[in-house]
Amino acid sequence: MDKIQESKSAERTQIDSAIARYEIALDRVDESVDREEGATGEAILELLLARDRLHEVWSRSQLGDRSAKRIVELDNRLRQQSAAIANHTELKHWKQSLNPPESFWWWQLSDPVRDSLRAIEHYERTLTAIETDRRPSSEAILELLAARDRVESVRDRLPKAQIAAIVELDRRLKQQRLTIARGNQLIGWRNTLKPPADRWWWYLNPTLIGSEEEPASLWDWLCTGISIGCLAIAASFTVSTYEVFKSNQQIGRDLAQHLATIAQAGGLVLVTGGAVTKQGQKIVENILISARIPPRWQGAGTLMISSGLLLVSWGIYANLPKWGIDYFNKGEKLAQIGQYSQAIAQYRQAQKFPLQRNLEQQLIASLGEAYEARGELEKAQEQYQLIGDRDRQADLMVGLARRYEDRGQLDRAKSIYEKFLNNARSANALGRVILLEGLQQVGWTGKLPEADVRQAEFYFELVEHQLSQHDNLYSEKLHYQVALNKGILRWAQVDLAQPQPEDLIFLLQAYGNFQEAFQVEQLLPTTADGGRAKCYLEIAGYLLDRFHNLQVNYRGVPPHQACYDRINALYRSDFIHDLELMDAAIGVNLKSPE
């Protein structure tokens, strides 16, 4: 028992001796530093060795923590001298010679001020690397954030002179918020590292016009305000363009119109969202980062994108008439080669676009003519009725009525002719329809009622009066048609199956009218009429021979039959009623009244 007591007493003596030595060495260093003389190498080395000795005896001791409080107090004093120890020039050599364990922290002390300065230098270096690299890697960004963490950990030991430097560096860091917050990388890092909420650099908000940490500058707000104004105007152009593209629900948009709509609408949604919504801003910011636009110009970058979108939207809107002209020209080319279905599709696309008045009227006429060429007469009539030029409308409608006439739809033809009596062609055609309707009812060879004769004759005389005031190719063609119709009118005054002696005058007048038409026909350019006047003249001569009971012997096919066969073979679809009348006149069993 006495031996144990003696052993504990010896341990206590060793510990007390080691603590005393440690304290004396520490006092010596403290006094040197306080006098600003600087601790000598001998004093610092003694201090470190004293701490070594204390560690040695303490680690072997089994006396508990009786002296622990005192040792902790002395260690705190030692740490306060870390600058003097760490900055001594001989420290490196001592460590190489004595090779203290890594766990001997007093040998590993560093200068807190120097460490702080190094942390700031590292922070600045990594920040500069991010600023100069237009597309920094995630590793470089993560290193920057870790460097800022290091600065935060030594902030309490920083000299006051360095506080301003950190503030400036933090300002520069916030300017890189778009680069740092690119994509969702910050979220992933926060989930892994779980930084404290007060370390704002891990929670940067990627906003174009500032954040809670960095209020927006006047320049940012100005750029954003102008951007929103540009987008509002661009939106109005986009809506107007879209309304044009879908102005006719029955006419679908082609590929070019779809692409223009998608480009405008997509760009508008993207940039508008980028200016006024957080999610949109993130998308736009990633675009700006990818475009390598410096952060300080990213507000201006958004303005440039908005302005560009405005120019594109305005350009498309301003060129809508050119789109219409292009569709119209394509339709004209297709119509010229007989591709009427495709031409109609182009014309209908052109109708959706704003055009000048004269071109709009020409488009309507061309579309109507394409429908007419395809035999869609009702649709053609709908287009012709939209033409504002009365004379142009009359010409087209009269031509359309003739198509109805050729189809045997005399009622529809007649209703059109009656609307345009001021037009000589229409008046002439109306008189012709009255004749054809009446002759059709009496079997083509019977005698027409006197009322119908007078009505038709009235219209022919009206046309002749108008023709007397003109002398041109148009009037010559009309003169030819009136002469033909008047010849038919004279036939309509005779019952060809049972003519009366006094009917000779009508047959002679008919022959004269057909002869007049034939003379004009010879002067006109070749047309689809194909010699109708000559054929009528041959048949009129044949009827006169029959009326006079003359027997003519022909070599081969009689001239009147030959001309009928030719017209029937080449132009049947164009002259249905003429051929019916000619056929009836040739086949009638005309008996001489003598």
Report a brief summary of the structure.
72% of the residues lie in helices and 0% in strands.
List the helices and strands and how they pair.
Layout: H1 2-34, H2 41-60, H3 68-80, H4 82-86, H5 91-98, H6 112-132, H7 138-153, H8 160-175, H9 177-180, H10 185-193, H11 218-245, H12 255-276, H13 278-290, H14 298-318, H15 320-336, H16 340-350, H17 357-373, H18 377-384, H19 390-406, H20 410-419, H21 424-441, H22 450-467, H23 473-492, H24 504-523, H25 532-547, H26 559-571, H27 576-587
Tell me what you see in this structure.
This protein is mainly alpha-helical. It folds into five domains: 2-110; 113-203, no CATH class; 218-318; 323-388, Serine Threonine Protein Phosphatase 5, Tetratricopeptide repeat, CATH 1.25.40; 389-587, no CATH class. It is built from 27 helices and no strands. Helix 22 runs antiparallel to helix 23. The protein is rod-shaped, with a radius of gyration of 55 Å. The model has no long low-confidence stretch (mean pLDDT 76). It comes from Oxynema aestuarii AP17. InterPro entries: TPR-like_helical_dom_sf (IPR011990).
Quickly list its features.
594 residues; mainly alpha; 5 domains; 0% strand
- How much of the residues is beta strand, in percent? under 5%
Report the count of strand segments.
0
Rg is 55 Å
How many domains?
A: 5
Taken from the alpha-carbon principal axes, the silhouette is rod-shaped
Along the chain, the helix and strand elements come as HHHHHHHHHHHHHHHHHHHHHHHHHHH
N- and C-termini, Cα separation: 183 Å
Q: What characterizes the major β-sheet? A: none
> Unreliable runs, pLDDT <50, ≥5 residues?
none
- Separate helix tally: 27
Question: By helix and strand content, what is the structural category?
Answer: mainly alpha
Protein name: Tetratricopeptide repeat protein
InterPro entries: TPR-like_helical_dom_sf
